[in-house]
Model the fold of this input.
Amino acid sequence: MAEITTSLIKELREATGAGVMDAKRALEEANGDMNKAREIIREKGIAAAAKRSERETSQGVVEAYIHAGGRIGVLLELNCETDFVANTAEFRSLAKDIAMQVAAMNPAVVSPEDRTPDLEGPDNEVCLTEQAFIRDPGRTIGELVRDVVAKTGENIRISRFVRYELGR
Done:
């Protein structure tokens, strides 16, 4: 078994936002393999996020994003459980990243549950949560949100968005 040092635990905590004991357990389970430990924490975070998904989200932010020299604008409502989390840098960064995604990819609805029968196209094109994240195409917007849910310990929900483009 590999030696689990405090510097390894600290590095994993900084990378994932996990607690000290969670990082230590993940490293022990992964036998010191940092990548495997990250995956273990991510999987546990997704499980925890699923448990939180029914909690009420009455706080949050309305993020405004203007792109392309003022030709495209987005207003996004991103909700969480408390104003404490709504004011964290991580939550604000998530809101900005999602608003940029809406500006770049022009989704029609938030999630597959919001689809209407007349909406054409595959989920990964028309549903925001199913789209590949523009900054990291290996992850979807839904995964990005779940990662922040795991780090903050609160339910986070993309409530709605509107995208404006000159001439449309």
User: Anything to note?
Assistant: DSSP finds seven helices and five strands in the chain.
